[in-house]
Specification:
globular, disordered C terminus, disordered N terminus, mainly alpha, 12 helices, 299 residues
């Protein structure tokens, strides 16, 4: 992704299968070692690269790291820990399709943008100086390419055949969540990407981009809502917890993806639109834009 070398293989994984947890709140409250080690490695690398490693090189004053960026990277790590840790991970693996959908939304709609917001722009300088890396990175972070790659991956993993394989195989399940996170970083790049050489969309185009994002997830979510109960076979015979039946669980899961995610995107559209309108009004009056209003760039 950047000089931090956060490749899909290095991202935290998660467990699948095994005996159903029966502890408090139907969880065994045991953290998966790969999740903990993966997050520790990610944070250690980040704070070393932006701290001692950065200060040991000449001109470090020109390579600042803000408190907001540090908070963002810690927030991303906390989100991943919640998504792939107990009790949510136990519910998702063993009992509730709804919990599995919440996991996916946490990884793709919160952890991924926070990861990007935590990366200083100067981290990409060594990458951009390599022409072939720069060309590949620029191409992959263009809106249409990023949108297609991320949503093909997202839709494919929600097909019943792949979904069921992921639930029954630990390595496949790890791969699924790593791909979700990696491609979500890609799809968020046109909005919050940190490298000026791989620019963001202008604010009006961000609104269109957000709207386009509602279509794949909304379609899959609607399909899940209106499908016959038992769309994902592994959940057909599991113990029902919290009084949530099979049909209700499937409907809630579909609504989270359909209505929940779409609502978040529509809120983001509203925020971006009003910021853009305020920026245009300030320009029309000859007033300088506020600190939160950045000049529009087009990808």
């Amino acid at each position: 992704m950047t000089t931090l070398v956060v490749s899909p293989a290095a991202l935290p994984g998660q467990h699948a299968g095994g005996a159903d947890p029966t502890g408090f709140l139907w969880s065994d409250w045991s953290l998966e070692p790969t999740v903990v080690l993966g997050l520790f490695a990610l944070l250690a690398l980040y704070f070393w690269w932006t701290g001692p490693r950065n200060r040991s090189r000449p001109g470090h004053a020109d390579r600042p790291v803000t408190t907001r960026q540090r908070i963002a990277i810690l927030g991303a790590a906390a989100t991943i820990l919640v998504a792939l840790g107990p009790p949510l991970d136990d519910w998702a693996d063993h009992y509730l399709l709804t919990a599995h959908m919440v996991q996916h939304l946490l990884l793709t709609m919160l952890a991924a943008p926070l990861l990007l917001l935590g990366i200083p722009a100067w981290v990409g300088d060594p990458l951009i100086r390599r022409p072939w890396v720069n060309r590949i990175g620029y191409g992959l972070t263009r809106p249409i390419v990023a949108f297609l790659i991320a949503n093909v991956v997202f839709v494919a993993w929600h097909l019943p055949i792949l979904y069921e394989v992921a639930l029954r195989s630990e390595p496949v399940h790890v791969l699924e969540h790593q791909l979700f996170l990696a491609t979500a970083v890609l799809v968020w790049w046109p909005i919050v990407g940190p490298f000026p050489a791989w620019p963001r969309l202008s604010r009006p185009l961000q609104c269109l981009y957000y709207f386009a994002q509602t279509i794949p997830g909304g379609t899959i979510g609607a399909f899940i809502v209106f499908a016959q109960p038992g769309l994902y076979f592994p959940y057909d015979t599991v113990r029902r917890i919290f009084g949530i039946g099979l049909a209700t669980d499937q409907e809630l899961a579909g609504l989270i993806m359909w209505v929940g995610a779409s609502t978040i995107y529509l809120i983001l559209i509203t925020i971006v639109f009003f910021r853009w309108a305020g920026h245009e009004e300030a320009n029309a009056r000859g007033a300088p834009p506020t600190r939160t209003q950045q000049p529009a760039t087009r990808g």
